[in-house]
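Re: your question from the hallway

Yes, I did run it. Sequences:
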Amino acid sequence: TQLLEQSPQFLSIQEGENLTVYCNSSSVFSSLQWYRQEPGEGPVLLVTVVTGGEVKKLKRLTFQFGDARKDSSLHITAAQPGDTGLYLCAGPTSGTYKYIFGTGTRLKVLA
Amino acid sequence: GAGVSQSPSNKVTEKGKDVELRCDPISGHTALYWYRQRLGQGLEFLIYFQGNSAPDKSGLPSDRFSAERTGESVSTLTIQRTQQEDSAVYLCASSSISGPFTDTQYFGPGTRLTVL
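Structure:
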């Protein structure tokens, strides 16, 4: 069974600080995605990484896919209150379009 | 254009009653997913529809759960004889397949189900 574990589960930081969120698995994924979910809304896709070792940047957010395609990280530089939300990683299982989601990291950025 | 819509936004029901949740996907999206999200947790896959192919029902937790999709449009998720553990937010997503096992899912706002 493919699983995605995220850490930390909760994170509360001050505005301007940097942080990293991790998404780990013992299984290889063909791609991994990161979503952000705000209260009362559905998740919104931030990025998809498909190549081992790939690094993608989205403004202050940097996403990395592990060389072995078993893990990924999300780094936020100079966090803002608008970054507050639930961050979820997700990946397709064993060559299908059935996606599994990680356990989530709940981030709160204090002004 | 319109995004994914779900109705109702909130549903409170009594244990043992049946409920029906509706999802209207983005027009032209061939794939449709249902997920369950318990309070403070990640998303749990329930069922996946793709065009005219047989749906992937492997995530449905029991035979009390069923889902249908009319062509490539609206889908309904039905929960029979609801139990308190069914309380959760039920999310629907649609996508147009963009690459090998990689697609962008667009989510609706969810239906919050509370079983008393």
